[in-house]
Amino acid sequence: MKVIKMQETDQKSQDNLHDIVMIGAGPSALAAAIYTTREDLDTVLVEKAIAGGMVATTDWVDNYPGFAKGISGLDLAEQFRAQAERFGAKFEFGEVSGLEIDQGDKNIIIRLADNGEDLRAKTVLIATGSSHKKLNIPGEDKYYGRGVHYCATCDGAFYRDKKLVVVGGGNSAVQEAIFLTRFASHIDLLVRSQLRASEVLQHELDKFVKSGKITIHLNTSPDEILAKDEDVVNAVKITTPGKTEILETDGVFVFIGLLPNTNFLQNSGVKLDDQNFIVTDNNFMTNLTGVFASGDVRSGATMQIVSSAGEGATASLRIRQYLEEKARG
Ligand SMILES: Cc1cc2nc3c(=O)[nH]c(=O)nc-3n(C[C@H](O)[C@H](O)[C@H](O)COP(=O)(O)OP(=O)(O)OC[C@H]3O[C@@H](n4cnc5c(N)ncnc54)[C@H](O)[C@@H]3O)c2cc1C
Predict the structure, then answer these.
(1) Complete DSSP assignment for 164-224
(2) Which pTM does this prediction carry?
(3) 21, 34, 58: which to mutate for ligand 1, most atoms within 8 A of CB?
(4) Could you tell which of 76, 151, 263, 314 is best to mutate to test the pocket of ligand 1, judged by most ligand atoms within 8 Å of the CB?
(5) 268 lines ligand 1 (CB under 6 A)
(6) Which of 8, 42, 149, 185 has the highest local Cβ count within 10 Å?
């Protein structure tokens, strides 16, 4: 009796075994899925929120090739999803809470939160992206995308000849503040304590300070983002030692760090860098055989839609190669 039960369980595991499970359904996983499903690889994407990832929450995308006039983030996300679905990608909505290698058959077990049924796969692509650290001050969420931004490459061009506030004192804040000088008439850089950017960047920054294009406010934190008629951002309330001020501005860019969505990998054995981004080799494989990663969650990623999609496509080709080699033994 016991033996029969084990056979049934094994059969169930095999029936439930997918070629690839992709964690996340942002541009990186969706691009990968277009490739894998066109090659008849059985592909399931597990998504905890909305197919399209961060793109689906982006107002307007001006820099994705193929759309000369730009495209709304929601429309682009929908195009990605529909294209993957056309070739047979399957979607499951739920949050992945962990990964484990089955020490018997070496397949990968994907655990779902909320007691969802585990998935099993020969390979996994982790493409869970990252989230921007927030200031958590009044006005930040309310005016997000309407004066509050986290991506200079994406939204900087909307601020031609306008005044901007940039928040942060590390490499990315300084780099992005310098980038934004291409558009903005003036930038106020708010630094909570002292600048932490590299010497090279600080040297570069100095040129813009001397020309009057950037003003640095050290030991300064934003307290609230204010808007005219509760609609158009027009000022930031700031605290500097001993006083509170109102700084006029047309927009606020926040660069205080990124948080990769890798919490669920805590006990998985997947190698992370010192910022908790996933470390991969040149084939986008992690230190766990059969587990790949691409897009914004990967250490060294360039955090753009086109590069995330490109990484997903490359990872999918490496996954196919891996599966072929595995099948050949
Ligand atoms: C406001 C804003 C505007 C932007 N504008 C542009 C732009 O104009 N041009 C540009 O090139 N780039 C832009 N970007 C950057 C771009 O959106 C990202 O580089 C791109 O979306 C990364 O794709 P991804 O697939 O790696 O990750 P994501 O798009 O972040 O997708 C990851 C997905 O994984 C899901 N997920 C996370 N954890 C789990 C889990 N445990 N279980 C299941 N699902 C999970 C998430 O819900 C998400 O849907 C913008 C970003 C922001 C925030």
Answers:
(1) EEEE--SHHHHHHHHHHTTT-SEEEEE-SSS--S-HHHHHHHHHHHHTTSEEEETT-EEEE
(2) 0.81
(3) 58
(4) 151
(5) no
(6) 149
